[in-house]
Amino acid sequence: MEDLPSALRDFGLTVSILPEKGRCLVSTRDFYPGEVIISQEPYVCVPNNSLVNSRCDGCFVSRNLKKCSACQVAWYCGSSCQKLDWKLHRLECQLLCRLDEERRKFVTPSIRLMVKLYIRRKLQNEKVIPTTATDNHSLVEALVAHMSDIDEKQLVLYAQMANLVNLILQWPETSIKEIAENFSKLACNAHTICDSELRPLGTGLYPVVSIINHSCLPNAVLVFEGRLAVVRAVHHILKGAEVSISYIETAGSTVTRQKALREQYHFTCRCPRCIKVWQYDDIQESAFLEGYSCKDDECDGFLLRDSDDKGFICQKCGRTRNKEDVKKLASEVKAMSASSGYNQGAISVYKKFENLQRKLFHPFSICLMQTREKLLQLSMNLEDWREALAYCKLTIPVYQRLYPGFHPLLGLQYYTCGKLEWLLGNTEDAIKSLTMAVDILRITHGTNTAFIKDLLMKLEEARAEASDKLLPDDAIVVS
């Protein structure tokens, strides 16, 4: 079996060690936007099944499913997926069948993922499943667990989960301590598998992709084609540069992003965005994303606390907003967000909530954008396409600010906008929006996926429809 450096050489990559970062992937040639840097099948993966929602263990689809008749845990959409998964599930099924029905209810996707991890290691050791340089358990062993950084409460949880896994396996060579450490590895290194529109489907461990470090201003993006993890360049990556992706939602202030990274991944980011923390540009960005609006409704300036801490001064027009007024509105927003009606998703309540937020937050506020996103979804569920489009258009400027360049979330928002415009007969606007979507998503998703082909077909249909509208009623088309 060739070693990992030799295998990565074919991709134009090498593994390097950086101070304070550890291992990373570095390019040995130039990569250009849209180019695949590396792709990898999961070492192990599991769909996010629950008591009410299930997906196929093989391809993660949610239609035409049949439950495994023996263990009553795994689901398959057909015989092909069942056969592909059989080498691994055959042993998993035997182990799960030993559990009584009550205990089987506690076998969550996380527990299954860990059980599969040990089964795959066993089957590879026994040569039942082949190993390669990019598919072997030594790559899992090399992943960092961060056990010393985990608080006691989390350690207890891992120990409880490890105890259930140990009960399922009943293998003398495994220990609860080792299993708990592997749970910590999964928490730091596993990836959420999403569909083309970034909706979560399951969880997978991709040991080579996990070597890629985080940046809040990444030069690559991770997307999934089924279960296949695909890393594509979104900027020109020069030979010798480190490849980076984002581990977290990058919409947020530096302080918010840093907190999320410390809590889940146990490191402090020092990317080009994060090194500006507490500089004027960073303070301004935080005030836009998480701060308050100017007292003047026509002003889009950002607010900073005054020196006496009695109010907030608009940095554009100089008006002062009283601290007590802000606190009163903030309390109302907090109270409404915690109310049962808000949580139940009644559209009328969300509209009141959005109206209250507009009085408090800056127009580029993430909180305001998230509420409008919810209103967009609720309007679409009610098939109120005109209102859905109105909310979608309100989110676009915020998306443009939060996700500059080739970001899949911005492309998908243009895609939603274009579909709604086309549905409402605004063909010219739809063409513009769908074109923007194509320009971004062909870079992040590639050009050969079914999703992009469908998007390109929609764009061509919209263009054809627009051309037909330009023809006079009595025009004769000669074929």
Automatic annotation (TrEMBL):
<keyword id="KW-0863">Zinc-finger</keyword>
<feature type="domain" description="SET">
    <location>
        <begin position="11"/>
        <end position="248"/>
    </location>
</feature>
<keyword id="KW-0862">Zinc</keyword>
<dbReference type="InterPro" id="IPR002893">
    <property type="entry name" value="Znf_MYND"/>
</dbReference>
<dbReference type="GO" id="GO:0005634">
    <property type="term" value="C:nucleus"/>
</dbReference>
<dbReference type="Pfam" id="PF01753">
    <property type="entry name" value="zf-MYND"/>
</dbReference>
<dbReference type="Pfam" id="PF00856">
    <property type="entry name" value="SET"/>
</dbReference>
<dbReference type="InterPro" id="IPR046341">
    <property type="entry name" value="SET_dom_sf"/>
</dbReference>
<dbReference type="InterPro" id="IPR050869">
    <property type="entry name" value="H3K4_H4K5_MeTrfase"/>
</dbReference>
<protein>
    <submittedName>
        <fullName>SET domain-containing protein/zf-MYND domain-containing protein</fullName>
    </submittedName>
</protein>
<keyword id="KW-0479">Metal-binding</keyword>
<feature type="domain" description="MYND-type">
    <location>
        <begin position="56"/>
        <end position="93"/>
    </location>
</feature>
<dbReference type="InterPro" id="IPR001214">
    <property type="entry name" value="SET_dom"/>
</dbReference>
<dbReference type="InterPro" id="IPR011990">
    <property type="entry name" value="TPR-like_helical_dom_sf"/>
</dbReference>
<dbReference type="GO" id="GO:0008270">
    <property type="term" value="F:zinc ion binding"/>
</dbReference>
